[in-house]
Amino acid sequence: MPAEHAHEHAGATHRHPVDFDPTAAGPDPFSAERRADRPLRIGIGGPVGSGKTALTAALCRTLGAETELAVVTNDIYTTEDADFLRRAAVLDTSRIEAVQTGACPHTAIRDDITANLDAVERLQRVHPGLELVLVESGGDNLTAVFSRGLADAQIFVVDVAGGDKVPRKGGPGVTTADLLVINKVDLAERVGADMSVMCADAHRMRGDLPVITQSLTDDPSAGDTANWVRQRLAEWSRSTEPVV
Predict the structure, then answer these.
(1) pLDDT per residue over 50-104, tens digit each?
(2) Whose CA, among 12, 130, 139, 183, lies 20 to 30 Å from 46?
(3) Which residues contribute to the annotated binding site?
C-alpha cells in the first residue's frame, strides 16, 4: 500500500505518495489523478556502466529541440552525471538538476523519493512549460526500479559487457520496466556475448514488454529509444486533452 512522506516547501507542508512495490497493481499512471497538469516523468535506471548517462545525453540531443525537456540525475556523493551533461551542453544548464542521494541509489528513486520530487518541482518553477523530465538513477543492480510516485514510465538499461546471461538473471529492472534497452551491442563480438541468446532471454523474461537493442556508437541519436519516448509523450498529451 502506498506510504506518504511529509515534508515542507517554503513554509507549506504537503505529502508525496510513495509506492514501495512497483510490481503491484496500482493506478493508471496516465490517469487524471496522476497527470495533475505536470510533465511526463520517465525514469532511466540500470547497473553502473551500462550507459544510462550516455543514453540520457542522446535523448536530450534528439528530443530537446522538439520537446520542453529537463533532467534530474542521481549520484551518491557527487554531481558527476549532471556535470557531464552540462559540459556536453545537451541542454541549457538551468534544465539539469543533480540529486546527491548519500545512500544506495535505489533509496532515492524508490523508498524516499522526496529529493527527486523536489528537484522536479524546482525545474517546473523555472520552466513552467515542461513536457518531459528524465530522471536518471545512480548505478545499481538488476533490482533497481522507480517508485510509481516518481516515474510514470521506466527505462532499464543493461549492456552486453555484462555477458549474454544478464537478461535471464531477471530482477524487477529487467522484468517489469516499461522498456528494456540492451546497450553497446557493437561490443558483443569483442566480449563474446551472443545477441540472439540475449534477445531471446530478454523477450522470454519480459513477455509482451518491449526490448530495444542499441549502439550509441552506430546511432548516436538513440533513434529507437527516442521514438519510444515520443510515443509515451503522445499518449500523455492525449490523456491531458480536455473532454469537450
Answers:
(1) 999 999 999 999 999 999 999 999 998 899 999 999 999 999 999 999 999 887 7
(2) 130
(3) 46-53
Look up the domain containing 146 and give its range: 45-235
Annotated binding site for GTP: 46-53
pLDDT digits (tens, 9 = 90+) for 116-125: 999 999 999 9
**Do the beta carbons of residue 53 and residue 67 sit within 8 Å?**
no
Q: What is the dihedral of CA 160, 164, 170, 172, to 10 degrees?
A: 10
Taking only the tens place, the pLDDT of each residue in 10-36 is 333 344 444 444 444 444 544 555 555
| Inside any domain, residue 151 | yes
Q: What is the CATH number of the domain that holds 215?
A: 3.40.50.300
* 175 within a domain of the structure (yes/no): yes
Number of domains into which the chain is organized: 1
